[in-house]
Hints:
The protein has 306 residues and is of the alpha+beta class. It folds into 2 domains: 98 residues, Phosphorylase Kinase, domain 1 (2-Layer Sandwich), CATH 3.30.200; 201 residues, Aminoglycoside phosphotransferase (APH), C-terminal lobe (Aminoglycoside 3'-phosphotransferase, Chain: A, domain 2), CATH 3.90.1200.10. Helix content is 47%, strand content 16%. It has a 5-stranded antiparallel sheet with strand order 1-2-3-5-4, with helices on one face. A 3-stranded antiparallel sheet has the order 6-8-9, with helices on one face. Strand 1 and strand 2 form a beta hairpin. Helix 6 packs across helix 9 and helix 7 packs across helix 9.
Amino acid sequence: MEEKSAIWKEKEARLIIQEALHVTENEILDVEVLHKGMTNRSFLFTCRGKRYIMRVPGEGTDRLIDRKQEYAVYQTLSGKDICDTVLYMNPDNGFRITEYYDHARVCDPLNTNDVRQCMKKLRSFHELRLKVPHTFDLFGQMEYYESLWGGVASVYPDYAETKAAVLSLRPYIEAHVGETVLSHIDAVPDNFLFYEDRNGKPAIRLIDWEYAGMQDPHVDIAMFCVYALYDREQIDTLIDLYFTEGCQRTDRIKIYCYIAVCGLLWSNWCEYKKLFDIDFGEYAVGQYHFAQEYCKIAREEMEKEA
Length: 306
C-alpha cells in the first residue's frame, strides 16, 4: 500500500511540476531523493538548466500540519529575505516547489561561529515582530500529539509522572512571557541554510516553516537546543549567543522550562510517528530525557530565585 502511494505521489508531483513551471515531462530531468525527513520527502530535479526541490508530504502529515497556516506564513515572509524562495505551494495538500541553493550547507551545531551567525539571523527575524492569524500552542499541541496515539500507552513507563512535571512549569512560563511574534518553532540547525547570494556574499536562509505561528520567540532557542541534543553548557552558550547584551535570569529559567516542554512535545510527536513504523531512535529518546532533566533544572533554578 505504501509503495503504491509513493508511486502515485511521484506521478502527481511530476504533473504539478509541469503546470507550475510550464514545462513538458521530458524537461524534468535528474530526479533524485534529496532528503527523507521527519515529516516530508524531498526530491531534487533539474529543469531547463536550473535545479529545484519538490516537497512531498509524508505519511500521517495531514494530521500534524495545517497547510493553510503554513501558506499564510510564507505569504507573510514573502520578500523579506528570510526563507527559501517558493515557486509553488498548494495550501490544500502541502506539495511545494522551491529553488535549490547550489553549494549550500546547513548549520553545524558544534561550530561556534555557525551557531553565532544562526542566532544573529534568528534574533533579527524575531525583531521584525511579524504577525500571522494563528498561534502554535505548545501545551495544546503536546496534548494533541498524545491524542493521536489512539489510546496506545506511551513506551515510557513513567510518562504520566514526567508529563505532570512538565505541566507544572506552565505557571512560570505564563508569568514571564513577553510579546508574542511569528516564531519558527522548528528553528533547528538543519533548517539554517548557509549559501552565497547573487553577489557572492555569504547569506543565511531559514527554511521549513511548517510549524510556524505566533509564540514567545524564546521557544525557538529551546527548539535549537533539543534538536542538537545539547548538554547544559552548550545550552547556556547558545542562550548567550542570542542575548548578546546578556540574558536576564528569568528568561534563562523560562528557556529551561521551554526545553522541558519542547522535549515532551517532540517525544509525543515521535511516538505518533512510531505508529507508522517510523522510529527516530536516539533523537526520540533524547527528547524525552530533555523533558525529565529540564523539569528538574528549571525547578532548581526557581528555588534559587525564591
